[in-house]
Amino acid sequence: MEYKTTDLCDACDEAQACELPFMGFGRKRAFAGTIRTARYSLGLNVLRELINQPGHDQVLVIDGAEAGWRALFGDIMAGLAARNGWAGVIVNGPIRDRVEIDGMDVGVKALGTVPRRAHIGSRGELDVPVHFGGVTFTPGARVVADEDGVIVLPPGLNESSIKVDDAIAATARYVAG
């Protein structure tokens, strides 16, 4: 990926930076795409349905706030995400199966790892706006993730429509004194 979250934030004040300390998993440490969402609500059956669909380079954002400290995503789902063409996965909560996921051609951002999985149970919610880390992740918006964090771009913008050259030059001038 050629665009950095830091440069995009410097060049676009309207970019929303998520305030959570995400960790990166999988071989893709940077990814971007159109947001699809799944919210854990006493179960994540909706996630199983969604991850089995073609991803079309979209990013799946999973809000697991209601799951407590239980894994919402593991190696089987990561394998499906990679195979079905998802650009990446962002999890507001922990994942499991870190070693296996780190060997896969997938990008995952999560808050850590834990061995116990979340309850599979009920359906959950699909394609609803979810809010965490000071950012609202709206289905259809554009999200960019790398080792520095996760940002949501303003409506109608994508990475290539934000001119980062001036921001990079301004930083270089500032550092040079």
From TrEMBL:
UniProt entry keywords in alphabetical sequence: Lyase, Magnesium, Metal-binding
Binding site for Mg(2+): 97
Domain of life: Bacteria
Cofactor(s) demanded: Mg(2+); a divalent metal cation
GO biological process: regulation of RNA metabolic process
Catalyzed reaction equations: oxaloacetate + H(+) = pyruvate + CO2; 4-hydroxy-4-methyl-2-oxoglutarate = 2 pyruvate
Matching Pfam families: RraA-like
Binding site for substrate: 74-77, 96
Similarity field: Belongs to the class II aldolase/RraA-like family.
NCBIfam families: NOT-MenG (TIGR01935), PRK09372.1 (NF006875)
Name of the protein this chain belongs to: 4-hydroxy-4-methyl-2-oxoglutarate aldolase
Organism whose genome encodes this protein: Ramlibacter henchirensis
